């Protein structure tokens, strides 16, 4: 991540900002998303600076950890980018990526779209599935003191932005309400290919989980 002084400075800034972050949304999450984004972008026509900055700053202040306030992340990112004299068009593009990247914000008609958002969004979604996605889901569930699984609490069949944001269900439900839906919602061809194996891994995990839960394994 040393392509330019700007990327080097952004990396250092993000590491410091997320020094005490929850394990699923820390610097290592950012690093994984960055590498995913670089791999996806290699096959797409996109502004690489915007992709890099979007990947590095997309979770600079996740609203889940700030009382649901979705303005903090964009504000922090804007202040940083302006302090580095990043041109206004690039800054605004990165801010729009931060505002529109989340799964919750993808419900209904998305107000902003770009090739760069598609790439960073796919990169972020890839980190929410597969082995890493499973680990992150249970890490966050433990952070929020949620049940692993409760057969009496079924997943929400029709998740909306509001129900997803306010959901406090067991972690296993999260697979059906978000994680298993991500493969079909990838934006790029590379993202879809990368999602296939991770999706299959989650399906296998769930089969094993239920078998062990019932004492059949």
Explain what this protein looks like in three dimensions:
The protein is an all-alpha fold and 217 residues long. The chain has one domain (5-213): Hypothetical protein af1432 (Orthogonal Bundle), CATH 1.10.3210.50. Helices cover 58% and strands 0% of the residues. Helix 3 packs across helix 5, helix 4 (72-83) packs antiparallel against helix 5 (88-100) and helix 5 packs across helix 6.
Write the layout of secondary structure elements.
Elements: H1 5-17, H2 27-41, H3 48-57, H4 72-83, H5 88-100, H6 115-126, H7 130-143, H8 161-165, H9 171-177, H10 189-213
Terminal-residue CA separation: 44 Å
| Annotated CATH topology | Hypothetical protein af1432
Number of helices: 10
Percent in strands: under 5%
Give the number of DSSP strands: 0
- Overall mean pLDDT stands at 91
Rg measurement, Å: 18 Å
For the report, how would you describe the main beta sheet?
none
In the CATH scheme, the class would be Mainly Alpha
Helical proportion, percent range: 55-70%
The CATH architecture designation is Orthogonal Bundle
- Helix/strand-derived category reads mainly alpha
Please give the domain count.
1
Low-confidence stretches: none
Assembly form of the protein: single chain
Order of helices and strands: HHHHHHHHHH
Instruction: Indicate the overall shape.
Output: globular
Question: Quick gist of this model?
Answer:
This protein is mostly helical and 217 residues long. The protein has one domain (5-213): Hypothetical protein af1432 (Orthogonal Bundle).
